[in-house]
Amino acid sequence: MTANLKLSKGDKVGLIACSDGVREENSLEVEALIKVLNSFGLEVVVASTLFRRDAYFSGAPKVRAAELNRLFNDDEIMAIFDISGGDSANQILPYIDYNRIRMNPKPFFGMSDLSVILNGLYTLGNINSYHYQLMNLVYSDGKEQQNAFYQSFFEGHNDLYDFQYKWVRGNHMSGIVIGGNIRCFMKLAGTSYFPDPTNKIILLESLGGRANKIVSLIAQLQQVGYLDKCAGLILGSFTELERYNEFSVVEEYVKEISESTKLPIVKTDEIGHGSNGKCIVIGQEIIL
Questions:
Q1: What is the mean pLDDT of the chain?
Q2: Cα-only R_g, the chain
Q3: Same domain as 207, residue 107
Q4: What is this structure's pTM?
Q5: Which of 46-50, 100-104, 167-171 has the lowest mean pLDDT?
Q6: Whole-angstrom Cα distance, residue 227 to residue 223?
Q7: Which of 11, 61, 62, 85 has an alpha carbon 20 to 30 Å from 117's alpha carbon atom?
Q8: Buried (b) or exposed (e) across 149-179, using 16+ Cβ within 10 A?
Q9: Is 38 exposed, middle or buried (0-12, 13-18, 19+ CB in 10 A)?
Q10: Helix (H, G, I), strand (E, B), or coil: what is residue 206?
Q11: Is residue 175 part of a domain?
């Protein structure tokens, strides 16, 4: 397993889009992000598959995977940041070179639809990956995010890792973290990229979806045997669900279906699609 990321001035980092390509109209945000990274002393290597070329994609699946493999194989690049999202990331899973990545590991950052790659890298590549959206550095909480990013990845503090939470059930959980965006994570069900949940902590969060959709996805998670095997559940932010004040519906359902095992559950508003989002490491043990 890789250790937590430690960056230094002069390091190179990669910028890529493995899901839907970044829209051209967002190029100014990308430029602002690169300026922030440059201000930290980082040199940014931009993948050829960053912006959309046709329709939604920054390249064909094999092309996007080849760019990701290239960044992993480049010994000068210390970390890879995927700033995309959408629906397209699982297209590249069969073309990722997991054997080479296992021999040449480095931190990969992404979230939302990138949950499929975060978990695939852990399951087949045996490396840690980081559930975090780098674009937070230039969003509404940008100054706070920039400070937490620098303190965590340059100074070795825990600013970006420490998240506030409350207990829904229990008072202790420990295990390796898997999961991410629930809609995207469930794309892996039945595939070799779906991690074994035994004694794992499952993170679930979502941008879209009201109570009926989220409950449906959690029901699927239970029906594939996940909730009977895991050691705990972290419920992150569910943006649309909480905007409609429907989280209590999901909370009660989760408690009901896991009553027999007394599954430990926590709720946090600091992991998910909010601009204040913290970072959690997929593939690393956590103790709450």
A1: 96
A2: 18
A3: no
A4: 0.96
A5: 100-104
A6: 8
A7: 11
A8: bbebbbeeeebbbebebeebbeeebebbbbb
A9: exposed
A10: strand
A11: yes
